[in-house]
Amino acid sequence: MDKRLEAICGDAVEVMKTLPEKSIDLIVTDPPYNLNKDYGNNKDSLEFTKYLEFSRSWLKEADRLLKPNGTIYVFMGVRYISYIYGILEQELHYFFNSWITWFYTQGIGKTKGFSPRHDDILMFTKSEKDFIFNLDSVRVPQKFYRSINNMRGANPGNVWEFSHMHYCNKNRQSHPTQKPEALYERMILASSNENSTVLDPFLGSGTMLRVCQHTARNGIGIDINPDYIAMTRNRLQEPFEGFDSIDERMKRIPNDLNDADYRSAYIQNHINWFLSNHPDTIQSFLHEAHKRYPCRENIKAEEPLLFVMNNV
């Protein structure tokens, strides 16, 4: 089932120069923020103008590689995000689409000043109107059943809440800035199609390739640290039980699903729509459905997965 997945060790710009022009459908990447982080064989501690030159060089290569209907998502810290925005909009003439805020509940603790609890992601498109955006693939469940609502779900908005990759997470890798898989899942599902090719010039712990592996996309990841490339290749060999994180809204069942026939159909659809990449959450979702609508549904709380196999 795996598509073409490549983890390439080397300097991002130099490797990108070897890739064919207009060969990439989507770029999703988390480049160094220039905060003096230790990445094993390198540190992101460039002088200000050198960091901007570095950013400009990889973004120009990204522009060369991206197809005319392509999209780029860039994680970036607050110190440099305005400069990245300027390069994309003013120099490369991309079209701004969204400024996404990733909110997480735990992070760095400060004793003087307020502790940071979010990262930012810029979304730009190469074309103003001709770009891929699969809204149905990234909708979130409605809070209530209403006849006027689209029960396929709502737009997730531009503030995303996902848990940080805590050190107790079984999928935590030995990497200082590992991102949750569900973040990449949403961007990749929204802005590419099956068989598309996704690029991450700063692959790190390999999250992008892991998500491509289980969403039927091709993926090319680049990292300068050979240890991270080896980490990624090992990660791609691990069994899949569901992505390591989820938007908690995906597990909520709407209130007021009072019609038994509609409710039964909705529960089956909910699993297909929202939990297809999260099989490890299906059991808890069905228990919640049984709890919310006791004795109204042909769901045995102790046998939820059997219900799924028989009805989905």
SSE arrangement:
Layout: E1 5-9, H1 12-17, E2 24-29, H2 48-65, E3 66-76, H3 81-91, E4 95-103, E5 118-125, E6 159-161, H4 181-191, E7 197-200, H5 207-213, E8 218-223, H6 226-235, H7 260-274, H8 282-292, H9 304-311
Parallel strand pairs: 1-8, 2-3, 2-7, 4-6, 7-8
Antiparallel strand pairs: 3-5, 4-5
Would you kindly provide a brief summary of this structure?
This protein is an alpha/beta fold and 312 residues long. The protein is built from nine helices and eight strands. Strand 2 (24-29), helix 2 and strand 3 (66-76) form a beta-alpha-beta unit.
Q: Structural class, judged by helices and strands?
A: alpha/beta
How many strands in all?
8
Assign a percent range to the helix content.
25-40%
Biggest sheet character: 8 strands, mixed
Distance between the termini: 21 Å
User: Total helix count?
Assistant: 9
Mean pLDDT across the residues is: 88
Fraction of residues in β-strands: 15-25%
Q: Regions with pLDDT < 50 over 5+ consecutive residues? A: 297-312
Alpha-carbon Rg, integer: 21 Å
The strand order across the widest sheet is: 1-8-7-2-3-5-4-6
Give the CA-based shape. Answer: globular
The secondary-structure element order is EHEHEHEEEHEHEHHHH
Walk me through what this model shows:
This protein is an alpha/beta fold and 312 residues long. The protein contains 9 helices and 8 strands. The chain has an 8-stranded mixed β-sheet, with helices on both faces. It is globular and about 60 Å long. The two termini are 21 Å apart.
